[in-house]
Amino acid sequence: MSSTTSRMRAEIGEQPEALRRTIGALLPRVAEIGALAGGTRQVLFIARGSSDNAAVYGRYLVESRAGRLGTLAAPSIATAYRRDLDLSGVLAVAISQSGKTEEIVETLDWAARCGARTVAVTNGAGSPLAEAAEVALVTDAGEELAVPATKTYTTQLAALAVLALGLGADADPADLLRVPDEVGRLIALTEASEQLPAIVEELAEVQGTVVSGRGIAFGTALELALKIKEACYLHAMGLSYADLLHGPIAVVDDRTPALLVAADSGPTLPGTIALARRVRGAGARAYGVGGGTGLAEACSRALPGPALPEWVAPLGLIVPGQLLVEALARRLGADPDVPRGLNKVTQTD
After folding, report:
1. Does residue 150 contact residue 31 with C-beta atoms inside 8 Å?
2. What is the pLDDT of residues 196-230, one digit of tens each?
3. Comparison of pLDDT for 247 and 233, the residue scoring more
4. How distant, in Å, are the alpha carbons of 16, 190, 319 from that of 151?
5. Quick one: pLDDT at residue 96?
6. What residues make up the domain containing 252?
7. How many domains is the chain built from?
8. Residue 185 and residue 155: Cα distance in Å, rounded?
């Protein structure tokens, strides 16, 4: 494995400060979010790519902690089918790293015309998306040069945690303030672990993997699977472990390992541990990310997770996965900064 530091690795290391700036800027706006959301009862998330995986976290967060129904939008209803819906009582939250993806801007405009209140989550201050929203939660990640989103993704999660607090989430804001230092600790802990290079070497010998989590960790599983595909060019299937057990578990074997992600606490942790045992019982390798000692002991190998409450754990949980992907891409001879066929801003219709 080359020792050359990639831009992606440098930006992974910038996340503690990016999170500190973002949380510091957005946490004082909780009351503003609450005022905008007054009278709404449902949250509609509009996103694509990594931002869509952030939206999955947002959905589970507002449903499990704020007691509001959260749904993921199908932008084609607005942009292709051009069908108006009654969105009165809806808070539409559009998420885009650049704020320049035309489909996302158009869908947020459509939501407003249909009666929704609107919020943007973007790293692009002054971007078309920020200008289109009633409230713009602008993250402070700084410029991100590597194509795979790292610090823009985790700061999006921070913005969504603040959004949930504005919607009345049953959660302690002090937990969010702990995140930057914990992410810094986790980067150092992961890189010092003997498990990271060992997992990289073993994954370099396979054609694909299954990545699974559930509940608040599900978005992390989807994001890790996306990163493996886009930076390492391996087949990676991101699934809730409930869906995995309904049939796709058959693809897990001695040539297709499973990556399992979980917070160190919460109602989905026992099921993740049980899945790890089942995977190993079938003769396959199970790699854990997070999940405390319980998941680590059930897995073939494991990377540490953040010492954070479940509701903010995904802000740290993706970080060992980012480090794994960056190292694996270099081990496979790929440039993690510029995956083939991808650009920083993707336009869709």
Report:
1. no
2. 999 999 999 998 999 999 999 999 999 999 999 99
3. 233
4. 9, 17, 10
5. 97
6. 181-331
7. 2
8. 17
